[in-house]
């Protein structure tokens, strides 16, 4: 009975821990949120971004109005991914009330911002010249100038321009017309959440756990109450969509109106520039309507007082909450994308089948010929003997094929690093494909990637020590190999990242990583990843060492000059062509989304194309290793790694071509330097990952064929 009670207690503890983890991971907007009519919704402000500079800036570093209660960071939106991406989400002066149309609302608590100083004027003009965009967020949905209901839009970009330029004059978009798409519900999600909280509390959770479950609801209620009081104090008139007017927020059910629930499914904006006089009554002006040529735009000049205003409109939509991100995830050339992916899939499958058939038939023929020679006792002579020698050239290096290469420790370190990168990419892409790392969770993809890379450090230590032990036939000084694994690749990344950070820190961009984040990364590196690397090495030492199927000669065999078909440079260049062709189309769309501001969510295709690339890379590496061995060249260890990694050369060349062709708008040294640094990290990761694939496939092939021969 005591054992049974202990199991029950352990199970209850695990359930409580799981509930706490779920609550701690809660991301606003990833769970359906329902709002009553008259409930206040707070708009959040994210960092300003530009596709011409790739340098994000804090929203309030620009001459924009600040909320009356002060600027506050939205704490539950911060994670390592958002910090590294330079995303800073804060409260904004824009507050909306569900299903209440508002016109001519003042955003600034004091009525206007100004007068503008010369420094602020220069900043605004620079931001307009560099096409910076303002990014606002409502219920975790980004604002956009595109029509979300127009299915003919092939793509969508979040945000809106800071302003525009006409001739030599600059104008700021100081008036925003919000159009909120809402979907009517009946409060089923709210009721389900309340019932869940009630059931958990009834099951005996202590006060602390209940408080954690109710934290998000309490914060939301407090913010709504504050916003209600703030709006009620302004004595403004609100117009409901049904035509009724009220001078304060009231209980809808008490008036006999339908207290329906609504969910936000779209956030659109139409920005425009209107010159208004500070302190004067706000005239209701509809932007973008023909005949409004009398509207004078707000020019950016020193001493100007800018009056920021906004209108709010609500539009019922048939878009359900689960589909509200569909319009945001559209990409340019969507149909071409799907066709190209299917075409690449078919080509890769055909080519992979052909290569596999060639290898299988050729090796089987060689093995059959060798067996016949063994049965005949080598009785063949003359031209037949020479022909057999040419046909079975790879068996002539049996005594040297497993000879340890030079600098075997570095080879083991690079293979271990590549396996770690492959495992991290696989786990991250699987979770993204299953929907756990959606765009609604900003920074989640990068955060998950870093987390899994740290946790899988033990795998790199295991592989590196085991490979090094196989090559040297000893595990002596395996600690040095683990230390090199722990410091090598993370050290390169940290070096590049530090140089990049030093370059952009003086710009004032939020892309500069704060010292606190550096400290956190260092702690994760030295206190988590490094010990795990040594743990993996300790496990590898205890694994029985693989025996070679053939003995290694004491004296190395002379390597004859390679024919043209087995030229190392030619094989290196040829090995990466087909794998690069496999991923070329998907690479284009991924880089377009990454650098041109589109959302990317086709992680299933990335996983599929990545798997196909690994398959074709492995087969090409095996084929090239076979050709090399047939030329009686047994130094295949490093070359198999290089040939597998050769696809990274083509990715690097493509990155340079993409910079020239598609990113010609990048201006200045810093934006180009940012691009080159991040693409260098990407190419370096591909180098180690694909090199590990090539090495692993070649190792399996060489071991298998010589084991089949069973030569002495």
From TrEMBL:
It is a multi-pass membrane protein. It comes from the Eukaryota. Keywords: Endosome, Golgi apparatus, Membrane, Signal, Transmembrane, Transmembrane helix. InterPro entries: EMP70 (IPR004240). Residues 1-24 form the signal peptide. The chain crosses the membrane at residues 338-360, 411-437, 443-469, 481-505, 517-541, 570-592, 598-626, 647-676, 682-706. It is found in: Endosome membrane; Golgi apparatus membrane. The keyword Signal applies. PANTHER family: TRANSMEMBRANE 9 SUPERFAMILY MEMBER 4, TRANSMEMBRANE 9 SUPERFAMILY PROTEIN. Belongs to the nonaspanin (TM9SF) (TC 9.A.2) family. This is Transmembrane 9 superfamily member. It comes from Volvox africanus.
């Amino acid at each position: 009975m005591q054992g049974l009670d202990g199991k029950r207690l352990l199970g209850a503890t695990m359930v409580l821990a799981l509930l706490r983890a779920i609550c701690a991971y809660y991301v606003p907007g990833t769970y359906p949120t329902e709002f009553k009519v008259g409930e206040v919704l707070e708009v959040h402000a994210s960092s300003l971004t530009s596709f011409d500079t790739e340098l994000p800036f804090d929203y309030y570093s620009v001459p924009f109005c600040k909320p009356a209660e002060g600027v506050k960071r939205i704490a539950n939106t911060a994670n390592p991914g958002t910090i590294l991406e330079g995303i800073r989400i804060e409260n904004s002066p824009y507050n909306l009330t569900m299903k209440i149309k508002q016109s001519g609302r003042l955003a600034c608590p004091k009525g206007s911002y100004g007068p503008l100083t010369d420094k602020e004027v220069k900043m605004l003009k620079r931001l307009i010249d560099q096409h910076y965009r303002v990014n606002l967020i409502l219920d975790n949905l980004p604002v956009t100038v595109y029509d979300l209901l127009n299915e003919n839009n092939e793509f969508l970009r979040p945000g809106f321009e800071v302003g525009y330029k006409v001739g030599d004059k600059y104008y700021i978009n100081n008036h925003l017309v919000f159009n909120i798409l809402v979907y009517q519900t009946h409060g089923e999600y709210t009721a389900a959440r309340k019932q869940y909280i009630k059931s958990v509390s009834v099951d005996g959770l202590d006060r602390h756990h209940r408080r954690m479950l109710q934290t998000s609801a309490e914060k939301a209620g407090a913010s709504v109450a504050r916003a209600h009081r703030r709006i009620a104090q302004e004595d403004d008139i609100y117009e409901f969509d049904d035509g009724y007017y009220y001078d304060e927020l009231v209980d809808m059910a008490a008036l006999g109106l339908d207290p329906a629930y609504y969910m936000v499914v779209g956030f659109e904006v139409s920005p425009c520039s209107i010159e208004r006089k500070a302190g004067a009554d706000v005239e209701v002006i509809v932007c973008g309507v023909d005949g409004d040529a009398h509207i004078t735009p707000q020019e950016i000049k020193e001493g100007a007082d800018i009056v920021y205003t906004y209108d709010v409109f609500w539009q019922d939509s048939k878009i359900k909450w689960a589909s509200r991100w569909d319009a945001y995830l559209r990409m340019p050339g969507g149909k071409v994308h799907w066709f190209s992916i299917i075409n690449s899939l078919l080509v890769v499958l055909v080519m992979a089948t052909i290569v596999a058939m060639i290898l299988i038939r050729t090796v089987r023929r060689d093995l059959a010929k060798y067996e016949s020679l063994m049965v005949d006792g080598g009785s063949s002579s003359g031209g037949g003997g020479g022909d057999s020698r040419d046909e079975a050239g790879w068996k002539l290096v049996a005594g040297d094929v497993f000879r340890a290469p030079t600098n075997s420790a570095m080879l083991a370190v690079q293979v271990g690093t590549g396996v770690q990168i492959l495992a991290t990419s696989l786990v991250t892409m699987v979770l993204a494909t299953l929907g756990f790392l959606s765009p609604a969770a900003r920074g989640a993809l990068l955060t998950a990637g870093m987390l899994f890379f740290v946790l899988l450090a033990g795998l790199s230590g295991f592989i590196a020590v085991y490979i090094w032990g196989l090559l040297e036939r000893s595990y002596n000084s395996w600690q040095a190999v683990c230390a090199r694994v722990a410091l090598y690749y993370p050290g390169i990344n940290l070096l590049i990242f530090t140089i990049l950070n030093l370059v952009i820190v003086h710009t004032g961009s939020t892309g500069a990583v704060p010292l606190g984040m550096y400290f956190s990364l260092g702690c994760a590196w030295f206190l988590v990843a490094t010990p795990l690397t040594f743990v993996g090495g300790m496990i590898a030492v205890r694994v029985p060492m693989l025996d070679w199927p053939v003995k290694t000669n004491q004296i190395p065999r002379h390597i004859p000059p390679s024919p043209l078909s087995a030229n190392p440079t030619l094989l290196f260049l040829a090995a990466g062509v087909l794998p690069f062709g496999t991923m070329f189309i998907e690479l284009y769309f991924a880089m377009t989304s990454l650098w041109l501001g589109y959302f990317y969510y086709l992680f299933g295709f990335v996983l599929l194309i990545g798997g196909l690339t690994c398959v074709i890379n492995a087969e090409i590496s095996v084929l090239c290793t076979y050709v090399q061995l047939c030329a009686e060249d047994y130094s295949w260890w490093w070359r198999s790694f290089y040939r597998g990694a050769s696809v990274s050369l083509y990715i690097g060349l493509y990155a340079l071509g993409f910079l020239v062709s598609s990113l010609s708008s990048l201006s200045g040294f810093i934006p180009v330097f940012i691009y080159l640094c991040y693409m260098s990290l990407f190419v370096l990761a591909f180098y180690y990952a694909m090199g590990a694939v090539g090495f692993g496939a070649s190792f399996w092939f060489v071991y298998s064929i010589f084991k089949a021969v069973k030569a002495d």
